[in-house]
Amino acid sequence: MAHVPAAERRPQLVQAAIELMAREGLEAGSTRAIAAELGVAQATVHYTFGSKRDLYRAVMEQMTADLVDQVCAAAPENLDFESSLRVMAEALWEGMRKQPGRYVLYVELATHAYRNPEMLDVIAAHQKHMHETAAALINELAEQTGRSLRIEATAIARFFLAGFDGLAQNHLTAGETHAAADLQRLVEATVALA
Predict the structure, then answer these.
(1) Looking at the chain, which residues constitute the CATH 1.10.10 domain(s)?
(2) Are 156 and 131 in contact (CB under 8 A)?
(3) Among 4, 37, 59, 118, fewest CB within 10 Å belongs to which?
């Protein structure tokens, strides 16, 4: 493969790592396998990231950015608070349903971080970003719809995202059986909390 500047190579490697690990699992994401996925020398992965921690951080950052972009793109205009929240929740759900490997990879990275204290800041940064983004969206929805929030948006965001994670994990083990109804109940509970 022709020489590509590091600034261009890095996102390519991150995307290759995400695709590989979402398909085959976190443990499959060796530097050798990631290099092979993109068709570059293994040294390129080492040079670009330096450590697995740096690679995992880059993967989490990209997955977070992708998720935020997906939900923000779905943010509707001219709907009431509950309907708007439902549309965004459904967009988040659809992303998880269409790419379950990415969600499983997130869970694997989180579990890896819990067992490796030097990685906790990676998952903590992801969660903080998700909470802040969800809170900003909730505040924006409240403002657009003329709704006053009973509690701070960050608490509402944490509640919704924790519930969503539970539903997603249940979906991955039990399938679609109650997914739509459960997601609707989560939205309703979130609106009631707000």
Answers:
(1) 1-50
(2) no
(3) 118
